[in-house]
Amino acid sequence: MPQIRRIETFEVQLPTRRRHQWTGLTEAIGRYLMVRVTDSDGRTGWGEAPALKDWGGEFGRYFGESTRIAKLVIESYLAPAAAGIELGNMAGLHARMDAAIKGYPYAKAALDAAVYDLTGQWLGVPVHVLLGGAARMAVPVTHSIGLIPYDEAVAEAAQVAAEGIRTIKIKVGVDPARDVALVHGVRDAVGDAVALCIDANEGYATPGEAISVYRAIAGCRIAYFEQPVAGIDRVGQVAAAIDAPVMADESAWTAHDAFQIAKKRAAQIVSIYTTKPGGLYRAMEVAAVCRAAGIVCNINGSVETGVGNLANIHLAAAAPAATLSCVVPVSTPAAWQNGQVGGIYYTDDLLVDPMRLVDGAIQVPTAPGMGIVIDEQKLEQYRVRD
Q1: Using CA atoms, how far apart are residues 230 and 252, in angstroms rounded to an integer?
Q2: Looking at residue 326, what DSSP letter applies?
Q3: Which of 36, 39, 168, 339 is deepest in the core (most CB within 10 A)?
Q4: Global pTM value
Q5: According to the model, what pLDDT value does residue 26 have?
Q6: Phi/psi zone of residue 263: left (φ > 0), alpha (ψ -120 to 50 degrees), beta?
Q7: What are phi and psi of 272, to 5 degrees?
Q8: Residues 328 and 313: beta-carbon distance below 8 Å
Q9: What's the first-to-final CA gap in the chain, in angstroms?
Q10: Quick one: which H or E segment has residue 327?
């Protein structure tokens, strides 16, 4: 049976289409860590750690993790622990990683995804089959509008709606007056056929402030209000006071977090990542808890390159609870970009072929492993060297 033989890391920086900012973020997206795992038969699998030092859960519960921290953790602790693990033994891989070092879910998620990729290639099946099979073969895309000027935000929303995107997320949480005006402006620009949701990234100072903002935009028919404040108990106060469902993101990293949210009835929706719980293996545990509790989910992320986004798409395909439109990129290399904006955050990507977007949804790859080949020339082109 093939085993893990070699683990390598590569830091890259993709060029962004435009600045993408949310409350609390102080560094550019796209400077992430790629992980290449080689097995004893010579196959290679890929994973990504889209780690951000400003992203660490409510009240810093899960601290910040940067690409350089992830690189150090992988090279010093995870790679030695994973050496010799047989492909397909995901429980064993996670047991060894957790024994080697506590925490650092982004580093662990990168290795987890690469091993899933290898295992799928070895067995001749796509990763979503390894996760239990496809609950869906098309993943609807939510386009995220960051903290950009009003006119730019409204124009971009109108364009992505014209391109067929059916859900738009608006980043809020900095200035209530700006937020209210922008949500009304976007609703006027896109009409009634597009669903709108808002994401404060814990930005509002109090539950009362968040509730006041929602009441000022309630007529805009908000699909959900994502992480209005910090702290799951405070999120629950907002959820109890407004009509729209509330989504937990910063408050929901692990299966245990999902259990606490369900027990407190603090949120009706949970945003699942491949990275926050430490990889696909653990993300499916989060999805299982949510499904048992009757909590609906989407798949979200840190605006990954195509490497990490492939893991997002296979998770979205396999997790039955992930019934909502997903906040994932439409990973597209430069040669296939023709001025489209929906789901496009970078002017190039590390994939050889683009993800297929049909009627606002990404078609799930069906080739073995993650299903799309990594362009190693692009990897070298965008590689960051000290």
Answers
A1: 11
A2: B
A3: 168
A4: 0.96
A5: 65
A6: alpha
A7: -95, 140
A8: yes
A9: 37
A10: none
DSSP string, 40-103: TTS-EEEEEE---TT--SGGGTT----HHHHHHHIIIIIHHHHTTPBTT-HHHHHHHHHHH-S-
Looking up tokens 């889209």 gives 50
* 307-323 mean pLDDT: 98
The reported pLDDT for the residue numbered 21 is 58
Tokens of 138: 């098309």
Residue 106 above 90 pLDDT? yes
Q: How many CB atoms lie within 10 A of CB 110?
A: 36
The closest alpha carbon to 178, from 152, 144, 143, 159, belongs to 152
For residue 100, the model assigns a pLDDT of 98
- Please say whether the beta carbons of 230 and 58 come within 8 A: yes
- Give percent of the chain with pLDDT exceeding 70: 99
DSSP 209-263: HHHHHHHHHGGG-EEEEE--SSSHHHHHHHHHH-SS-EEESTT--SHHHHHHHHH
